[in-house]
Amino acid sequence: MAVAATIFFFIAMLVGALLLSHVLQGKMAPKKLLMLHAGSFALGLLLLILFAIITDKPEKQIATIVIFAVAALVGFMLFSQKKKHQHMQKWLAIVYQAIGMGGLIWLLIFVLN
Length: 113
Fold this sequence. Notes:
The chain is mostly helical. It has 4 helices and no strands. It has helices at 2-24, 31-54, 59-83, 90-112. Helix 1 packs antiparallel against helix 2 and helix 2 (31-54) packs antiparallel against helix 3 (59-83). The longest helix has 25 residues, at 59-83. The two termini are 15 Å apart. The relative contact order is 0.18. The mean pLDDT is 87.
């Protein structure tokens, strides 16, 4: 289940990199890419939470869940800017990408050990 969560988070990270390129160019992010990013992120987070619930040692996944929860909050802030038809703040998009990549690296270290 952790491997499947990692795959979904990796897809979310790749799509997020595409979205970041749109934001850095000052363009509005395509809605389909936003939905693909949000959907793959949500599935990855759901699988990670379910894995933490059914495993014997959930404390190993708690740190990763917290990192991705923080990323989700920043993502909601960016999405609310999109809903208000405002251009997304570039610095916030970069921070969001960095948090997501950090969470993915943290999860990869966990999965590979």
